[in-house]
Amino acid sequence: MFRPNPRARATWRWGGAIAALLVAQSVVLAALFWALATGSHRRAAENAFAAECRSFAELSAPRRPAELRAILSRDIHRDRFLALFNRTGGRIEGNVAGVPEGAAPERASFVVPVRPTELPGKTSDIARLRLCMMPDGTRLLTGVDLDDAEEALRVIGRSLGIALLPGVILALGFGLLAGRRAARQVDAVERLTERIVAGDLDQRLVVGDQPDSFGLLCAHINAMLDRLQLLVAEVRGVGDDIAHQLRTPLTRLRARLERSLRDAEVPASFRAIADTALADIDMLLSIVAALLRIRELEDTARRSRFAQVDLTRLVEDAYELHRPSAEDRGIELRCELGAVPSVEGDASLLMEAISNLIDNAMKFGPSGGRVMLSLACAAGAPVIAVADEGQGVPLAERPLVTQRFYRLRHDCEGAGLGLSLVQAIADLHGFALRFADRGSAVLLICAPEPPNGLASAYGAAFGKAIT
Q1: Domain shared by 392 and 293, yes or no
Q2: Fewer Cβ in 10 A, N or C end of the chain?
Q3: Distance in angstroms (rounded) separating the CA atoms of residues 10 and 179
């Protein structure tokens, strides 16, 4: 079975639609012009009839026949009909033999055949007439011959018909050109998608300086492709990070197992080997779980489960949860709570972010030092801050510590995913994660744009509070 080319079908569809629209517009304009032309002729005639009726009504009865004859004598083109009739319908003066049938004084004007008396060779003619009542009871019939008007309207009609033909041809040509242009634009998108499917994610559509609607669509497609390329790069980066981070511990685990199996001689040695292997496997599983957790947080659909969160109670619960662990490590954990408004979010995720910040402060702060957990309100934005007595994150490394697997110190436990998880939670909530300009304070600001000077103020405040 024959199937037409989709591109050709689209061209004809678009071209036909545009051509039909232009043809319909031309027909409507022609009809409007015709209606205006005929209406203008009718209104001009009726205005002239009304003026003539008023002028004859103002004349005395004896003067009307003479005035009527004078008007007819000045009608050199013989296109006027004018007659005066008595009460019984008898003609007093004029060039119309009798009152036409259906003529009534209350009608503004009407088109009927008349019997002229001063047109040789013509016993009937078509005219637009009006019948007027005079004050003495006589009736005045005034009108105009429609032969010239009808001829003019016929000329106008023929002109519109002749002009409509090239208009239709131009409409079809323009429609086909527009359809081909639309088809070329679709072809550009099709070629782009083919390159992207082939793996070339750097391709983009051309957008002009002053884009039309299709140009705006191309700009949106380019923005989507930019985001897609970024996500693909992130996925590749995560895969590379996983391969890099898991290769070393897996190699070390395999070497340890081979050496231990070769040297072990008693069951106790085998148990020690198994315990060590299980610890390494748990560490690897924790890395995978953390990566999956971060990926889950990047799904914005989780926002549908957000609810109002009481930050005061949340921070207090985090403090109570970590106080025993801090005491076991010999660390003094303090908590300062201020009045703050509630926020929209996920309480369990925010608790996880605060817990990671407290764990980092206890892990990287000096042994036996102090850690402060604080909740306050700055410029209307709730701020959760965790500070320790350490040196803090160097300024050059602050953009790096929230990346996956980045660690400031390699002598501490962990895979470098804690702050990455906190950053993912902050991004999900639309919050900001900042480091104080001075000291070792990390701020979770419950607002997308932190107020100016907030990091400096918190750095100074925590420095005084801890010391």
Answers
A1: no
A2: N
A3: 7
Question: Is a pLDDT exceeding 60 seen at residue 455?
Answer: no
The H or E element containing residue 344 is strand 343-345
| Residues contacting residue 128 through CB under 8 Å, at least 6 positions apart | 42, 45, 109, 110, 111, 143, 144, 146, 149
Give the pLDDT of residue 244.
58
pTM check: above 0.85 = no
Q: Could you list the beta-strand ranges (E) of 95-221.
A: 110-114, 125-133, 139-145
Q: What are phi and psi of 386, to 5 degrees?
A: -130, 125
List Cβ neighbours of 257 (8 Å cut-off, separation of 6 or more): 273, 277
Q: Contact 138/85 with Cβ under 8 angstroms?
A: yes
3-state secondary structure of 126: strand
Domain for residue 318, yes or no? yes
pLDDT band at 238 (very low <50, low <70, confident <90, very high): low
End-to-end CA distance of the chain: 87
- Nearest alpha carbon to residue 427 among 258, 287, 295: 295
User: Do 252 and 336 lie in a common domain?
Assistant: no
Contact 205, 221 (CB under 8 A): yes
Tell me: do 389 and 418 sit in the same domain: yes
300 CB contacts (<8 Å, ≥6 apart)?
428
Q: Does residue 329 share a domain with residue 272?
A: no
- The token pair at 101 is 């049938």
The answer on 333 and 286 residing in a single domain is: no
Q: Where are the alpha helices (DSSP H) in 309-453?
A: 311-328, 347-364, 398-401, 418-429
